[in-house]
Amino acid sequence: MERLNKYIASCGICSRRKADELISKGKVTINDKVVKDMGRQVNIEDIVKIDGKIITKEEKKVYIMLNKPKGYVTTSHDQFNRKSVVDLIDEDVRVYPIGRLDMYTEGLLLLTNDGEFSNKIMHPHNKIEKTYIVTTDTKISQEQIESLKRGVDIGGYITKPAKVKITKNNTLEIIISEGKNRQVRKMCEVVGINLLNLRRIKIGNIKLGNLQSGKYRYLTKEEKENVI
Ligand code: URA
Fold it and tell me: For the domain 59-127+206-228, what is the CATH code?
């Protein structure tokens, strides 16, 4: 909620003083009723018109990377009332996650209010690579790696070729360009790798780096422009 004159000014129409003038002249309506009270509060669902024309706030575009902690869901309304990643973001505008990470997966999650940017990243045609780190207590064989690379049947769907390598003892890096539900977990299960922890560290050219768990930051201009 904000005062009507401030709302008009923040829509970029005019200054607050000029807004007061328009209001006192009876040129402003809220939900089609003329309002002459400059201090009248405006709600998000109110329709404000000046001279019969609807005015709206020019929404600033926000691009965020979050290091998602385990235990958070990526939907904003959860039927079981579980904690949501959007509760970790303190912004004036509403942002939503680009794609999903399951509740027990941690790491890089992008959020935005820019539909075009979101589509660019999500569109299967763009085949954006996503890099995951799997921690396991299974001694991984070359055969398991080769199967994951070739593609495995995760319940009626054969995964596309992936890039897979052992990075350290008990740690596997898997890069996929698709995003079926719980895909990495299912891939590991199918080949008999016991997944202890799953973390996403990269989307396209955007790296998580050393951002702390539960913290977020804005993407740089370069990250935003060169994501693919
Ligand atoms: N694969 C998974 O299993 N979970 C995710 O959250 C993302 C990819």
Answer: 3.30.70.580
Question: What is the fold of 2-54?
Answer: 3.10.290
Lowest mean pLDDT across 17-21, 78-82, 97-101: 78-82
Domain ranges for the chain: 2-54, 59-127+206-228, 129-203
If you average pLDDT over every residue of the chain, what do you get?
92
Q: Is the pTM of this model over 0.70?
A: yes
Place of tokens 């804005």: 218
| Pocket test residue of 70, 98, 101, 164 for ligand 1, highest count of atoms within 8 A of CB | 101
Going 210 to 216 to 222 to 228, the CA torsion angle's sign is positive
Rg (CA), the chain: 24
Residue 102 bears catalytic tag:
yes
Name the pLDDT band for 58 (thresholds 50, 70, 90): low
Q: Are strands 216-218 and 96-97 parallel, antiparallel or unpaired?
A: unpaired
| Pocket perturbation via mutation, ligand 1, pick of 172, 182, 186, 189 by most ligand atoms within 8 A of CB | 182
Does the domain at residues 129-203 carry the CATH identifier 3.50.50.60? no
Mean pLDDT of 103-125: 93
